[in-house]
Protein: TetR/AcrR family transcriptional regulator
Amino acid sequence: MAGRPAEPEVIWTRPERAGRGPRPAFSRADIAAVAVRLADEGGMAAVSMRHVAAELGCGTMSLYNYVPRKEDLYELMFDAAAGEFPLPDRPSGDWRADTAALARRARAMMHRHPWMSTVMSSHYGFTPNGLRYIEFSLACLDPLDLPPGEKMELISMISGVVTTFVAHELQTAERNRTLPWSAEQEQAARMAYLGREIGSGKFPRLAALMTAAPGPVDLDAVFERALGRVLDSFGGPAREGT
Structure:
């Protein structure tokens, strides 16, 4: 297929357009912007080389001259979204507060671009803007007395918490959106069923749980607790020598 490399390559080492000829009609930024918009509006199912090409007003085969593989298109999309990530000029010096702030911003960004949680990959993390994010994250951890490899483990674990948490939030929202009745009616029916089962006496631990924590779950509070526990595991008093 036109434009496909004969050997493995990284899209960022490839010229904007393969081969000779007139000046490229589109930039990678143009292509990524169209693909991101399609994904924001219709999910990753709406993103195909044919659809992106049609939105750009070119043929599908022409698009392969710019983006050899669909995986490369996903990488461009990830990098474009990551470029929106607001990073301060420098860390504050409080590694814990800075890392938590990054996690909150990442959660917000994944809600703006719901498709991101479905394509998270260590490969896509090494795009130009992905590297920018990792470098800043490591700078936030400069005050933390840990080997570089463990600092990267912390960054990866925080990313995993955020991605998993957001994926659950988005899946729940999508399910509620497609219900034939309201989410409140669905919840009421399920709680009635749960109440009957717990009232049977077969689930004493669940009964104690429901008694201790009645009412709806505060997802923001759960997120903060999960985030705090990961940070504690790397930077508690024993690890910092305080």
The CA atoms of residues 221 and 227 lie 10 Å apart. The chain is about 65% helix and 0% strand. The mean pLDDT is 87.
